[in-house]
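On clarity, I found the account of how folds are encoded harder to follow than it need be. What matters is that the chain and its backbone geometry are given together, residue for residue. The format is easy to grasp once an entry is in front of the reader. For illustration, here is how one protein appears when written out as sequence plus structure tokens.
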Amino acid sequence: MKSQEWQVFMDAHVQRMTKQELEKKTGNTTKEAQSTLDTAEQIFRMQAELDAERAEKVSLQAQLAAEKAQSAAEKARLAAEKIEEIGMWQAELDTERAEQVSMRTQLASKEAQLAEVVEKIGKLQTDLDTERAEKVSLQTQSAEKDEQLQELQANTAHALPTPAPQQPAVSQPAFPVSADQIPGFLHVRLERWYGHYRHTAFSAIDNAFLTGCCKVMLVGVKPPLLAERTNEEFPALMQDLRDAYIEKKSPFWFACQEIHNFSAITTMQESLDELPASLGYFSTGDRQVIIISCPDDSFRQVRETILTHNKGAAAAGLNKVFTAWSTAGDVYSQQARWDGMSSE
């Protein structure tokens, strides 16, 4: 090969090598550029995503702040409502406490009044017990006097004529009597009026039980000393009541069955002055008072006492009082206009 051709070959080879080198460098540059572009794009995308996340975070923070502000406002509103509600409760509580204090004051006052009333009742009860004890003592003395009088009557009966049977006479006032004024024996059961009187009294007792009461108090108004029939009718009726129970008759028995116990009936004699108080005392609860004996000269006053008691009984929580006594004005057998007349 000639030097000229060699030179041409070498130049061509150099050019070729140079071109390859350039092409190689150009390719590397392109790859680097592409890589740089890819990195830049990736960085841009990441920056965009980061900006978006930051914006979302800012939005969330703003939303959270708004919610916190709203929550704070709601809490403030609820707190204000609670404070107002607590204030109302406190006011109601204060009012109730004031009312309780007032009620306690009133209760203390009423308890003090009640204590005074109880004390007065105690004193009255003591006085009443004393009066009753005195009354029992007087009744005992009176019974002793009656026994002495009966003995005296028995001793003088043979010297005095027996009075003819007659209707109850007007009683005489009590005053010291001489021996010639003491009456003889008087058997009221032999007189025509007594049987009717006993039936009236027994029927009144049965009717009293039919009103629903459980106890009956038979009261006799204490007669004067010389009121013969009034003094005799009360103890005679007590004896007949005992016999009626023993013999299983009315008002204790009905159709061979015991309907009232003998202990359900109690008796007493009371003075005219003490009668209103006794009627009030023995007319409470399930007790019924029947006045079965009264002297003639006290009829009007006793009737007025009963009427006054019965008018105020309902308001006072008391039971009404009934009567079953005998008077000279009662219409007994053979005393009515048509009694004893035969039919034509």
Remarks:
- Residues 3-156 form the longest helix (154 residues).
- The radius of gyration is 61 Å.
- The chain is about 65% helix and 10% strand.
- Residues 78 and 84 are 10 Å apart (CA to CA).
